[in-house]
Automatic annotation (TrEMBL):
Belongs to the anti-sigma-factor antagonist family. Residues 164-173, 179-190 have a biased composition (Low complexity). The lineage of its organism: Bacteria, Bacillati, Actinomycetota, Actinomycetes, Pseudonocardiales. Residues 1-21, 157-190 are annotated as: Disordered. SUPFAM superfamilies: SpoIIaa-like. It holds the Pfam family STAS. This is Anti-sigma factor antagonist.
């Protein structure tokens, strides 16, 4: 069996800022929040970012870019939780610029839907890439969330089916998969 201390001494790691950190330091300081993502010297965008902006007076969009994986999912969960307030604006999670979407991201969306439902606000997802649509479809979550291909297609509160009308007592996957509507972005997947 490997000794974690010996492994940490042999395995130097580098953070985004270029500082050397060891695996042991990560394990010992696991109660600290993850470091902020800074723009690397290469000028490329960070691996993960979320920008919140109002879509209307009753709807807020959280646009996610980069990768949603085991490392970034806790930050996304915290950022979405900050935006969900009792009887606050509906929440639209725009995943249109996400390049990688793991099961951890699916869990964040399920938790956010449950929190939005408990707060009495609507919740929907914007997705248009296979990297996001396939995991939603395979798990059946495309039938649980209202999924739109573009933010412009999300109706505002009171305009008909949209975030405000997507409310359930609990997040449950359907037993029998109902047919997808022809307007669903998932309908185009092979």
């Amino acid at each position: 069996m490997l000794d974690p201390a010996a492994l940490a001494a042999q395995t130097p790691r580098t953070s985004d800022s270029g500082e050397g950190i060891s695996v042991g330091a990560i394990v010992q300081n696991s109660d600290r929040p993850p470091p902020a993502v800074a723009l690397p010297p290469s000028g490329r965008p960070p691996a993960f970012a979320v920008v919140a902006r109002p879509l209307s007076s009753s709807t807020l969009v959280c646009a996610v870019t980069g990768e949603v994986d085991l490392a970034t999912a806790p930050r996304l969960r915290a950022l979405l939780a900050e935006q969900i307030r009792l009887e606050g604006p509906d929440l639209v999670v725009d995943l249109g610029e996400v390049h990688f979407f793991s099961a951890a991201g699916l869990n964040v969306l399920v938790d956010a839907l449950a929190a939005a439902d408990a707060a009495g606000v609507g919740f929907c997802v914007v997705a248009r890439t296979r990297r996001v649509l396939v995991p939603l479809s395979v798990t059946g979550l495309d039938l649980v969330f209202a999924v739109y291909p573009h933010v412009d297609g999300v109706p505002a509160r009171g305009d008909g089916p949209g975030p405000a009308s997507v409310r359930s007592a609990a997040v449950r996957l359907p037993r029998a998969r109902p047919a997808r509507s022809p307007d669903s972005p998932v309908a185009d997947l092979p």
